[in-house]
Design brief:
It is a single chain. By secondary structure, this protein is an alpha+beta fold. It has 30 helices and 65 strands. Strands 2, 3, 4, 6, 7, 10, 13, 14 and 17 form a 9-stranded antiparallel β-sheet that branches. Strands 37, 38, 39, 41, 42, 44, 47, 48 and 50 form a 9-stranded antiparallel β-sheet that branches. A hairpin with a 6-residue loop joins strand 3 and strand 4. Helix 2 packs across helix 4. Pfam families: F-box, PP2.
Length: 1235
């Protein structure tokens, strides 16, 4: 079944569909008369899907069919587009809204809030919040002085009063506001809104410094004009070379100038803004001398507004596969244990929801194999002796509803019902309470409503302090947790009323979060103490109260390590005595998280009676099987798609269909998962039938390299590189003295020799490795692997200092223990037994950013040289480095899980930790993850790249970006031929010019679609019209694009050259030598400015004779493409070998202002003969260009967001020789080519 993509413009042309999203009810939408594949879906299901889009998309979707138009009118859709606090924002006027849609469009028109000091409205297309601050909310220097500023009322302003500038010398405006009024996760632009009269003398023609940003962060500054009427010549006469932003006229008649951008991440920050001009000696006023009242309305600074930056989608893509029927389910043909395995990869909540799909699923979900996966590995130890459960499902819900006391009644354990995550409450006996054992201050009592035997009651204290610790191994891994203090207050509670109690929580060794809570707050308000806001407590269903202490993320949990949580509840500043508080304990439970499946569950509960307690007591909805949309794709195309995932996901994808299973076996897939240098790692005598077999061989059989000093293997699930350094590759103190260390050979070692400690009192092991042999962008953990023999002593509970880190960066430090002696030491990391018989202990972690591309060095050490006791009986195998989310199977973990795994398993298979892959694998199995590759517009680029690889292999299509792309016709039909041409054009416009040319080879439909102007206009820069020669007429946008690639255009009075890179459409810039700063450049005895025909600029610089050679340049990154890595080159020519400079290394640097610049050396010519052979430094040599010039690379930079300044330097001042014979055309910036 073809997926139909709806596009506003395309459907408007072909079917008369129009979506203006205007008017009282959101605009009139023409209905398409043809049937839609969604017509059989329930209306509330469609409305739930649409509510996850945007208001603009909802209006467009209404044109798909009558079913969609009806669904879009529902309140459940528009309620999602309204802000959560919309009820408090509705204007207090006697108006009744007939629907949430009408309310939404009413809120799109601005209205006043907070006593008229702010204006609020919603952005119509996205529903994002917009705010304007009135001048009454700003701090204006001299704003209250009537001789300098005047406050007036004007009908064209939305506020009661605006500020009129009369006459000031010191012009300064500042303001602050909280981000809670703005939409979270949104980038905003800030503007100052004003009017000017009579050119605003003394201010309009001066650059004013402005800035906006979050308090506590660096605020970028820029310059604006309030009038900006000066032309380029006038600015040159005044010597003004800086870049100054001009104001723009608004539709409401006011002017606005942009102050800057900022991103509102979490609505808990404060924005700070400033508008300052204090350098000019002129007075800022209307006129010098007398002026009328109307003339004094110069520079009416009335409002400051925040408008979110938008990303508009021109295509709405819908899926219509799930057709409701009463026949059968696509799962009915699968074996029951297969379905059970699929469902066990989800969560308990989703399993209950899935029970409503078909009778097969409902029957399967009752299976013990499903619910056993949701239970913790040690669940058998949590069952009371008197309890008997016939089903694992009953046991699961028992552990959810009835908390179990563990560790001698010191902790309470239960499961969160929806996710199966672990929840823990520490009893007060597990906490450190100051004066807790003194009966005159605290007493321990038993009360029936407490789950623990005893709880403490506060009798009378002045210093209130409670502290606690707990290991994270008892919590669920990769989970956000919230901690709460659970308490009660007696009738005689005293000393806590509106008292701020400081609470702190965090992982030991990491930055902790701090906030203030209140045990006994006033009911009518929250009292503020300074700048601290007290967090309210909440009533619980069990009759107790709880106050949130804070949140933390548990990375490791049961499988990854032993991080420790530390918390405190303290008030030692209040002089009042306190009493009447009962503490039950500290509770840890997962942060509540609702998502798409939760909304589906809610919809099904309302309409089908499905409950999420394991009871499917309603009507069963059955779906008929639908063929996969990938069944018609070529197998190698599917293989290419899968190769962009990981080995784990590839094995999961093989279960989707037979087409996928066949595609996953392809060498194309598994070669992508192998390291590039895999051919050097395979023994010559070993032969493999497929790349998949080779991959699993490298996972299961570590390979020795570097003369047997290192061991290499791949992590099976991700394909990440793992390394072990042998003991011979380490630096061991006194290792060469047989009196202290002996080198032996044992059969269980993968290396030829291991180090055995005879006896020593100074224990020190160090190691290091270059990160180029590891996987890039990966967090690694470092372990020392060893054994203890019977006569081991001296290490009993001895703290060994372990350090791991990159050279030049601060190393992480921890203390480990090689032999814990069976005692619990809170601060020491204890060893774990491995399945291979060795023991390992974690030394630390580091993040490898570069991998193969960079050459960082990671160093690690384990030492104990302070306690002079003799140590012996240790056998060291080596130091192992593997990705942090991978843990070798240990005996302790296997016993805890109640099963033993085969570490190598069956060749070609992957063993998963099912709980890790909850949502991700669920979506993969039921097609959602794969279908998103075609349903999200942003991922169309990936699909086209896959097509490109496929077409290159099968049809010889090649795209070098030359001549606009050669089009190759293919006679075979394509699965895209049935899609509308404008839909294909829109998909391709999200790729790149190179990929568009390759895609033209897919079919004639693609070839025709790629010629569309809508494709090539997306590849052009927004200001392309100003770059075109006025005398030339272009027949298509593609011709314009190729012109801008092949013919660089001079901009800014000929001082810069601009063109596009043909393959990607990225911007390229060359600064002329007139735009750079050259020392002595204006002295004709040292430099002369000449014109030559082969230069693109009118004048270029020629070096005559200097001793001090220095060139510097700067440019704003807004001229370049965002999120792009650029290389910087100096373009030049030499005469007569450039005496005094050609063979001298020249220091160059490139970087962003405020950041560290990259430094290197270059030659303009370079030495020859023996001098060249004697050069030991890394010096970059120049290369000849196609245009006859030479170029030398100065360095690279990454342009993140086009809001920085670039600094470039080329300096040679150390050589005493005079230099001449160099002609400089300019400094060139172009995208870095991928290797």
């Amino acid at each position: 079944m073809n997926r139909r993509l709806i596009r506003t413009q395309g459907m408007g042309q072909k079917q008369g569909v129009e979506s203006r999203c205007e008017g009282k009810r959101g605009g009139d939408t023409t209905i398409v008369s043809g049937p839609s594949p969604f017509d059989d879906l329930p209306g509330d299901c469609i409305s739930n899907i649409i509510s996850f889009t945007t208001p603009r998309d909802a209006c467009v979707v209404a044109s798909a069919s009558k079913t969609f138009r009806s669904a879009v009118q529902l309140d459940s859709v528009w309620d999602k587009f309204l802000p959560p606090d919309y009820a408090s924002l509705i204007p207090r006027v006697p108006r009744v809204f007939s629907s949430k849609k009408e309310l939404y469009f009413s809120l799109c028109h601005h209205f006043l809030i907070e006593d008229g000091k702010k204006s609020f409205w919603l952005d119509k297309a996205s529903g994002k919040k917009c705010i304007m601050l009135s001048t009454k909310e700003l701090v204006i220097t001299w704003g209250n002085s009537p001789q300098h500023w005047k406050w007036i009322s004007t009908p064209e302003s939305r506020f009661e009063k605006v500020a009129v500038l009369l006459n000031v010398w010191w012009f300064e405006i500042r303001g602050k506001t909280n981000t809670r009024l703005l939409s979270p996760g949104t980038c905003y632009s800030a503007y100052i809104v004003f009017k000017t009269v009579d050119k605003c003398p003394g201010l309009a023609d001066l650059p004013v410094e402005v800035g906006v940003g979050l308090v506590g962060q660096d605020i970028p500054k820029q310059l604006i004009y309030f009038d900006g009427y000066m032309d380029m010549d006038a600015r040159k006469e005044r010597g003004e070379t800086r870049d100054v932003m001009k104001p723009n006229k608004r539709e409401d008649g006011w002017m606005e100038a942009e102050l800057g951008d900022f991103c509102n991440e979490a609505c808990c920050d404060e924005i700070e803004l400033s508008v300052i001009e204090i350098k000019s000696p002129y007075w800022k006023s209307v006129k010098h001398g007398a002026a009328t009242c109307e003339e004094r309305r110069a520079c009416q600074l009335c409002e400051r507004g925040y408008f979110p930056r938008h990303w508009f989608l021109s295509v709405i893509k819908m899926r219509g596969e799930n057709i409701v029927s009463e026949s059968s389910s696509p799962f009915d043909g699968l074996p029951e244990d297969c379905v059970a395995n699929i469902i066990s990869l989800t969560s308990p909540r989703d399993a209950c929801v899935a029970a409503s799909v078909s009778k097969t699923l409902r029957s399967t979900i009752e299976s013990n194999s499903v619910w056993e996966k949701f239970l913790p590995p040690e669940y058998s130890s949590l069952i009371l002796g008197s309890q008997v459960f016939t089903l694992k499902k009953d046991l699961y819900f028992s552990l959810c509803n009835d908390p179990v006391l563990i560790e001698n009644g010191q902790k309470s354990f239960w499961l969160e019902k929806a996710s199966g995550k672990r929840c823990i409450m520490l009893s007060a006996r597990q906490l450190a309470i100051t004066w807790g054992n003194s009966p005159q201050y605290w007493q321990w009592i038993s009360i029936p409503e407490a789950r623990f035997e005893e709880v403490p009651e506060l009798l009378d204290v002045c210093a209130f302090e409670i502290r606690g610790w707990m290991s994270t191994r008892i919590l669920s891994p990769r989970t956000h947790y919230t901690a709460y203090v659970v308490y009660k207050t007696r009738n005689g509670c005293h000393g806590f009323r509106d008292l701020p109690i400081q609470v702190v929580i965090g992982l030991v060794g990491e930055k902790a979060t701090k906030k203030f809570i209140c045990f006994d707050e006033s009911r009518d308000r929250i009292k503020r103490w300074g700048r601290r806001e007290l967090m309210r407590s909440n009533e619980r269903q069990d009759g107790w109260k709880e106050a949130e202490i804070g949140e933390f993320f548990n990375e490791g949990g049961l499988s990854l390590g032993c991080d420790e949580i530390e918390l405190s509840i303290v008030d030692i500043t209040s002089p009042y005595w306190k009493r009447g508080l009962i503490i039950q304990g500290i509770e840890f439970r997962p942060v509540k998280n609702t998502g798409l499946l939760s909304d589906i569950k809610s919809t099904m509960e309302q309409n089908y009676g499905v409950e999420s307690r394991g009871e499917a007591g309603g009507e069963i909805v059955i779906s008929r099987p639908i063929p996969s949309p990938f069944d018609n794709f070529p197998e190698d195309c599917i293989s290419n798609i899968i190769s962009f995932t990981g080995p784990r996901d590839a094995c999961v994808a093989a279960t989707v269909s037979k087409s996928f299973e066949s595609a996953v076996k392809s060498d194309i897939v598994w070669e992508k998962f192998l390291p590039r240098d895999y051919s050097y790692l395979v023994p010559q005598w070993q032969d493999f039938s497929s790349k998949k077999e080779l991959y699993f061989a490298l996972c299961d059989q570590p390979v020795l390299f570097d003369y047997g000093g290192k061991s290499f293997w791949l992590e099976k699930a991700t394909g990440k590189r793992c390394i072990m350094l042998s003991a011979m590759d380490l630096s061991i103190l006194d290792a060469d003295d047989p009196e202290y260390w002996d080198w032996i050979t044992i059969p269980e070692s993968r290396f030829e020799s291991v180090a055995e400690l005879q006896h020593t009192y100074r224990f020190e092991i160090r190691g290091g490795i270059n990160t180029r042999v590891l996987s890039p962008r990966t967090r690694y953990s470092v372990y020392i692997v060893f054994k203890r023999w019977d006569q081991c002593f001296g290490f009993d509970s001895m703290p060994i200092e372990a350090r791991v880190g990159l050279v030049g960066q601060e190393a992480s430090t921890r203390f480990v223990c090689f032999d814990d002696g069976g005692r619990a030491w809170r601060d020491l990391v204890k060893p774990d037994e491995r399945e291979d018989g060795w023991v390992e202990i974690g030394l630390g972690e580091f993040f490898n950013e570069g991998g193969l591309m960079n050459c960082d060095e990671v160093v690690m050490s384990a030492s104990e040289t302070k306690v002079l006791n003799w140590k012996r009986g240790l056998i060291v195998l080596g130091i192992e480095i593997r990705p942090s989310n991978v843990r070798k199977p240990t005996v302790k973990n296997m016993q805890r899980e109640g099963k033993t795994r085969d570490a190598r398993g069956k060749k070609g298979s992957l063993r998963f930790d099912f709980k890790e892959r909850v949502t991700e694998l669920y979506e993969s199995i039921i097609y959602q993850k794969v279908l998103r590759a075609l349903s999200k517009l942003q991922t169309q680029a990936i699909v086209i790249q896959m097509m490109q690889a496929t077409m290159v292999q099968n049809h010889g299509v090649e795209s070098r970006g030359e001549g606009g792309g050669e089009i190759i016709n293919i006679s075979e039909p394509s699965p895209f031929d049935t899609l509308p041409e404008d839909c294909i054009s829109n998909i391709i416009s999200f790729t790149s010019p190179r990929d568009a040319c390759v895609a033209a080879s897919v079919s004639k439909t693609f070839e025709s679609a790629i010629k569309s102007d809508s494709v090539w206009e997306k590849f052009l820069p927004p200001e392309y019209l100003s770059l075109l020669p006025p005398s030339r007429v272009f027949s298509s946008k593609k011709e314009i694009y190729c012109t801008l690639c092949d013919d660089p255009r001079l901009i800014e009075d000929g001082k810069k050259s601009f063109w596009l890179e043909k393959a990607s459409g990225k911007r390229c810039i060359m600064l002329s030598s007139k735009e750079v700063w050259i020392t002595w450049g204006s002295s004709p005895q040292y430099w002369q400015w000449i014109s030559i025909p082969e230069s693109r600029f009118e004048k270029i610089a020629e070096l005559l004779n200097v001793c001090w050679f220095e060139i510097r340049a700067g440019m704003h990154t807004r001229y370049l493409s965002p999120k792009t890595r650029y290389s910087v080159y100096i373009v030049f020519k030499t005469e007569n070998g450039c005496p005094g400079l050609g063979d001298v290394p020249v220091e160059v640097g490139v970087g962003l202002v405020g950041q560290e610049s990259s430094q290197k050396l270059i030659y303009f010519v370079g030495p020859s003969g023996r001098r060249r052979d004697r050069e030991t430094r890394d010096v970059t040599r120049p290369e000849e260009r196609e245009d006859g010039w030479m170029e030398a690379e100065l360095g690279e930079l990454y342009n993140e967001a086009c809001c920085d300044d670039i600094s470039v330097s080329v300096v040679e001042i150390k050589s005493p020789y005079w230099k001449r014979g160099l002609i400089i055309q300019g400094i060139e910036f172009r995208p870095t080519k991928n290797p």
